[in-house]
């Protein structure tokens, strides 16, 4: 009788709290708005297979609204690394208190820019 009550209780707890706890540390499946100090703004969606899709929200070069699927990402605990367009740009950041803060380096004139990311609902 104890197992009859215990097993459903564990399953209820797992599906109520465990699933969100299980995925809380990974960015897989989440979307983030990334603001770059050079006035670019993107939304990145981090897919479960280590690839990502991003949209340019603001772009001084005029590419606003364009959607790209040419990036990969890796996460190690609180560190994220995003590679875009065969390493044309690389984003590296620390995930802390619901934000990503770090730098973006690009092959375009060797620029280094600060980034800040915010998780989207």
Task: Walk me through what this model shows.
It is a single chain. By secondary structure, this protein is an alpha+beta fold. The protein has a single domain (27-119), classed as Lipocalin, CATH 2.40.128. The chain contains 1 helix and 8 strands. The chain has an 8-stranded antiparallel barrel with strand order 1-2-3-4-5-6-7-8.
Brief account:
With 121 residues, the chain is α+β, with helices and mostly antiparallel strands. The chain has one helix at 2-23, and strands at residues 31-36, 41-46, 51-58, 67-76, 79-84, 89-96, 99-106, 112-119.
Task: Compile the SSE list and pairings.
Blueprint: H1 2-23, E1 31-36, E2 41-46, E3 51-58, E4 67-76, E5 79-84, E6 89-96, E7 99-106, E8 112-119
Antiparallel strand pairs: 1-2, 1-8, 2-3, 3-4, 4-5, 5-6, 6-7, 7-8
Percent of residues in helices comes to 10-25%
Structural class, from secondary structure content?
alpha+beta
Query: At the first level of CATH, what is the class?
Result: Mainly Beta
Instruction: Give me the count of strands.
Output: 8
Mean of all residue-level pLDDT scores = 84
Overall 3D shape: globular
| Run of helices and strands | HEEEEEEEE
Number of domains: 1
Task: Characterize the largest beta sheet: strand count, sense, and whether it forms a barrel.
Answer: 8 strands, antiparallel, barrel
**How are the strands of the largest sheet arranged?**
1-2-3-4-5-6-7-8
How big is the Rg?
A: 18 Å
- The end-to-end distance, rounded to whole angstroms, is 42 Å
Uncertain residue ranges: 1-24
Q: Give the CATH topology.
A: Lipocalin
């Amino acid at each position: 009788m104890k197992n009859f009550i215990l097993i459903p209780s564990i399953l209820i707890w797992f599906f109520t709290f465990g699933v969100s706890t299980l995925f809380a540390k990974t960015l897989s499946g989440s979307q983030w708005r990334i603001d770059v100090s050079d006035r670019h703004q993107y939304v990145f969606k981090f897919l479960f297979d280590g690839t990502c899709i991003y949209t340019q929200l603001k772009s001084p070069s005029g590419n606003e609204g364009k959607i790209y699927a040419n990036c990969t990402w890796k996460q190690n605990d609180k560190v994220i690394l995003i590679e875009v367009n065969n390493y044309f740009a690389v984003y590296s950041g620390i995930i802390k208190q619901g934000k990503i803060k770090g730098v973006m380096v690009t092959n375009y004139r060797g620029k280094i820019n600060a980034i800040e990311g915010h998780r989207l609902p």
